[in-house]
Write a sequence for this structure.
């Protein structure tokens, strides 16, 4: 099964700042079929020549350690992949007594890819199938 990224292009009439209609082309990456955990483990085991059970244990332990570091506010640097960092948005302003679990509005996980990963996703390295709708 081939998993290619598809680029969709849609033509839309949008208004500019002065209220004039303007023809615009909106591009988006089409969703591709998701890979489940078993497929991922099987492919990774073949690439690394490791037993799937041992590989699953290593991945679970790695995720557990990474989650602990992120909760403590320590960024997780994955060599040759990128850095994961946890961001917490709080409504507390300056007073320590306002801070705490109830003050948290949202939590997000940010990913900053390394240079090698960024280069993999440059336009000249991706294969697109243009679809018009």
């Amino acid at each position: 099964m081939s998993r290619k990224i598809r680029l969709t292009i849609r033509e839309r009439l949008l208004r500019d700042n002065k209220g004039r209609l303007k023809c615009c082309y909106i591009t988006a990456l089409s969703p591709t079929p998701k890979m489940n955990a078993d497929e991922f483990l099987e492919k990774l085991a073949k690439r690394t020549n490791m037993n799937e059970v041992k590989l699953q244990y290593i991945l679970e332990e790695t995720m557990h350690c990474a989650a602990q570091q992120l909760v403590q506010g320590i960024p997780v640097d994955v060599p040759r992949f990128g850095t994961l960092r946890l961001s917490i948005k709080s409504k507390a302003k300056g007073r320590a007594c306002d801070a705490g679990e109830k003050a948290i509005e949202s939590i997000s996980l940010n990913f900053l890819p390394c240079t090698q990963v960024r280069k993999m996703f440059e336009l000249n390295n991706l294969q697109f199938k243009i679809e018009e709708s």
Notes: The two ends are 24 Å apart (CA to CA). The chain has a mean pLDDT of 77. The chain is about 30% helix and 35% strand. The longest strand covers residues 6-15.
